[in-house]
Amino acid sequence: MGVMIKTVRAGIFSFAAGVSLLVVAAPCAHAAGMPQLDFKNPLVTGQVIWGAFIFLVFYLVLSRVMLPRVGRVLEDRSARISGDLEVARAAKHDADNAVAELQHARKTAMAEAKANLQKALDDEKRNTEAKIQEIKERLAAEIAEAESKVAAEKQRAFAALTDIAVETTQELVSRVTGVRPAPALVATKVENVVAERVA
Amino acid sequence: MAGGSSIDVLGQFELHSVFGGLGDALHFSQSPVYMMLAVVLVLAFLYFGMRPAAVVPGRFQAAAEVCYEFIRNMAIDTIGPEGASFFPFIFTLFFFILAGNYLGLLPFSYTFTSHIAVTFALAMMVFVLTVVVSLKVQGIRFFAHFMPAGASLALAPLLIPIEILSFLSRPVSLSIRLFANMVAGHVMFEIFASFVIMLAGFGVVGDVFAIGPIAINVALVALELLVGVLQAYVFAILTCIYLREAVAH
């Protein structure tokens, strides 16, 4: 590309130089030479002075007013873009934090609920066990009481049975023999018989 | 511009004083008028382009911003971090030359960059600036550049004059490059345009053949649009390169 442009430029230049030489040499060309090289013409040097002044004004306006204005717009834009990016990044950070907090809270709540449930179940179990134990004890006590009552009743009945047996025996003996045996003797006999039976 | 059958290609570069006697007294020709026009156009482009100062730019503002960023990047990429302080100067230089080159492409207009006095003045301004900056930044070490590092001392009598000569020829090459490109382009315009008028003298056949030079001139406008921006760019980038050498420690 560079070589091509250079070639084109060289071509143009040599062509122009050739044409210029021809024209300068041509008898009918009324210019004695290039007007650009006519340095005796005050206009040629005058444009340099004017050009310097205009260039200076151009430079001052550009460097003091115009270019800073363009630069400010570009800076504002990049500042705004980076600011927006910053805000977005902060928002994402906040959102991430919120999600993490939420997950943490959920985990904690789940663990707490599980613990509560377990505790309730344990309590219930303990209560039930205690009640069952209590009922068992009461029943056992009642059973024991009833048994002791039955035993006492039995004792009493047995004791009464002996008396009845002694009286019956006395009555029988007196009916049969007409003699009323001594109660102590009858009692001893009956007790012996009972003892034999039981044995 | 074509007087009779002769071709006056250089008449277009002649200066005429404008505004009558006042212009005569102040040596004010059409050249400063076009310089002012160029400056006003560039400033108006920037002013109206940047007036919305929108965060999301429109086409006009985007164009102004592209110009700003193009020159700024060129200055900073080429010169280095110090380029930011030279950026307004490079911008002024580039757009002064570009506007001058492009204004000259309008019919009946004048190209102030086709005058060696103007381009040499611009080149000398760059040259003096680089010398001043070099002396300010590097001090006396600036003169060490005229002896390339690593070269044997025996070659010094040969190398130092060559280096000094190449350094001094910078403003010459810088100014002649721009001047010659502009002159060449406008001379060719004039020649082919004159061919059209000459051919018009040959009746219908001439009218038909005149299409050729017109087509060439249309193509030349396209070429000159390229040359105009290219020469402004070359002038600006060479200034950047000279300034980089000046600020290098």
Which features does this protein show?
heterodimer, A: 199 residues, mainly alpha, 3 helices, 88% helix, disordered N terminus, B: 249 residues, membrane (chain B), CF(0) (chain B)
Structure, explained:
The complex is a heterodimer of chains A (199) and B (249). Chain A is an all-alpha fold and 199 residues long. Helices cover 88% and strands 0% of the residues of chain A. The N terminus of chain A is likely disordered. Among the domains of chain A are: 30 residues, no CATH class; 46 residues, no CATH class. The termini of chain A are far apart. In chain A, helix 2 packs across helix 3. Chain B is mainly α. Chain B has one domain. In chain B, 73% of the residues lie in helices and 0% in strands. Chain B contains nine helices and no strands. Chain B is globular, with a radius of gyration of 22 Å. Chain B starts with 19 loop residues before the first helix and ends with a helix. In chain B, 37% of the residues are buried. The model of chain B has no long low-confidence stretch (mean pLDDT 88). Chains A and B meet through helix 1 and helix 2 of A and helix 2, helix 3, helix 4, helix 5 and helix 7 of B.
